[in-house]
Amino acid sequence: MNIKFIDKLLKIDRRIIFVLVVIAIVIPILFPLNLPVQVTDEVRGVFNEVEKLPPGSTILVAFDYEPSTTPEMEPMGIALMRQCFDKGLKVVGISWLQQAPGNAIKVLSKIQGEYDTKAAEGKREKSLVYGEDYAYMGFQPGWQAMILGIGRDFKGTCKVDYKGNDAFSLPILKDIEKLADFPYLICLHDDSMINHWIIYGHEITGIRIGSMCTAVMAPGIYANLNAGQITGIVGGLKGGSEYEKLLKYRGAATSGMDSQTVIHVLIVIFILVGNFAYLIKEHHLKKERMR
Amino acid sequence: MTDYAPWAIALGTWIAAGLTIAIYSFLYKDNPFYKLAEHIYIGASTGYLIVIAWYDAIKRLLWIPLRYPRNNYDYLVILPGILGILMFTRFFKKIGWLSRFSLAFIIGWASGVAAPAVIKGLLIPHMGSTLKPIFDPANFSWNPLSIIFGILTVGFFTALVYFVQTDKYTDWELGRRLFIIIGTVASTILFFLFAVGSIGSFMQAFYTLSILVGVVSVLFYFFYSIEHKKALKGVAKTGIIFLMLFFGSAFGYTVMGRVSLAIGRLRFLVNDWIRQSTGKQWLIGFCVIIVISVLLLLSERKGVSSEG
């Protein structure tokens, strides 16, 4: 092989790689590939737990992700809300991160809009009502103390929702006294917040927990899954696409997986070509030294 | 919950698209657009955090309970309030030492709460999951084949450790080394297969054994009181392999996560910005971009000439 070409390949301008990455992402967005998605047991662990709940149950959803991880987390959040509201479950949201309320309100607004449209079109008897079908307690500072506090007294600890309504006045919290009164908790997190829920929530009150997290966080919490502290993991865009498949629709996560797959193939090609070129170059230099 | 006017959505989309492109322009090289976007990001996020801190923490948890107390206990918030105010004394040299009271409270409280909780909530359950039986008693059975391969596994493994420990292994030629290694691995696999009977149970036993071997070998790798040589070097090396596997999977997940973010931004640019924008919006957008570009370039030139 021409050694000059190998040299060029090894010193390729990184901007060319960036352009190739952009092309690899954009083409599947413009022309969807509709690649199949395989559902894993980890994702079923969360999905089935929600499916098992009887209609009318109230679950707690911790929105603990920041705007920087919205592309990964939002599709999961939307899928989860659709599953809950289609099943007739009630959702109480809460956040320990200061930057999380914007994301939580965005997801809930989107879902409210969807169900308003469904109700207007006659596909549903009625739309969602804030305070009855769902509520959001907003950002609550001091997660350790707060989790311990809601473990004993939910309404007394949270006091008001993000709109300033008294927690005792919200119909959705009528039967909720403490954390253990929620049959299930799902933590949407982009950091180690799940550990606090496990340590101060699950281990003390026994509440069952499911994790929806970024891909970066997923490997670290398999230990918790193995220890039986969480029922399942929905990790990253891949996890989101599996959840969408279980709900039988192709959403943002599933369409994103087309680009993800193409990009992964491209990265593998980059790694192979880079190593191959490096080995040829080394072999060539060795030969020259021998001469 | 929150409804926005169409013009506000369009404006927000254009600002978000402009800032996204400005940030990505750094991939080409550092430039004034990137700097502008970076400064806006820092300013906006700091402002957002201050607003959230004011409304959701100071006003809701301190101001309202003091102004409209529901019972006498509400007045107790004055204590954390004072501790919070003391943190600001760090800005004044003479009374800066007062902030240590707040820090002492935070550190003392958090350590006191966290130490037993972490042991009970993480350490013990994770140790417990490591110590799970390798074989499910319901599926495990001693039969002639499993007994034969069980004895062979113990024999091969003991021989391997013995020869490594007595330095004989290093003097062997490749064939003998391969024989004992393959013998150990193959007899272990066959023992597992014949003892559990089904592939599913075999895989379950394999996973449990992998976790056990991984935990022990990685812990040993970080155990420096004994020199890692001979058979113990093999244990430490196994630990390195498990660490590398973890780093590899974590890095793979990280790449997937970062790519997901890029996909999210590009999907926003294609679907929400390019496809949704009207001709009028494009015209206004271009005019604004040109004005910002001229202003930025002028300020950049001014900066360069004043430096010169």
Written description of the protein model:
The complex is a heterodimer of chains A (291) and B (308). Helix content of chain A is 55%, strand content 11%. By secondary structure, chain A is an alpha/beta fold. Chain A has two domains: 3-31 and 259-290; 41-249, Rossmann fold, CATH 3.40.50. The relative contact order of chain A is 0.17. The mean pLDDT of chain A is 93. With 308 residues, chain B is mainly alpha-helical. In chain B, helix 1 (6-24) crosses helix 9. Chain B is extended, with a radius of gyration of 32 Å. Classes of the chains: A alpha/beta (291), B mainly alpha (308). At the A-B interface, helix 2, helix 4, helix 5, helix 6 and helix 8 of A face helix 2, helix 4 and helix 9 of B.
Structural class of chain A: alpha/beta
Low-confidence stretches of chain A: none
Q: What number of domains of chain A?
A: 2
The percentage of residues in β strands of chain B lies in under 5%
- Spatial shape of chain B: extended
The percentage helix of chain B is: over 70%
Q: How many E-type strands of chain B?
A: 0
Q: What pair of chains forms the biggest interface?
A: A-B, 64 and 46 residues
Order of helices and strands of chain A: HHHEHEHEHHEHEHEHH
Gap between N and C termini of chain B: 54 Å
CATH architecture of the largest domain in chain A: 3-Layer(aba) Sandwich
- Give me the side-by-side strand order of the main sheet of chain A: 3-2-1-4-5-6
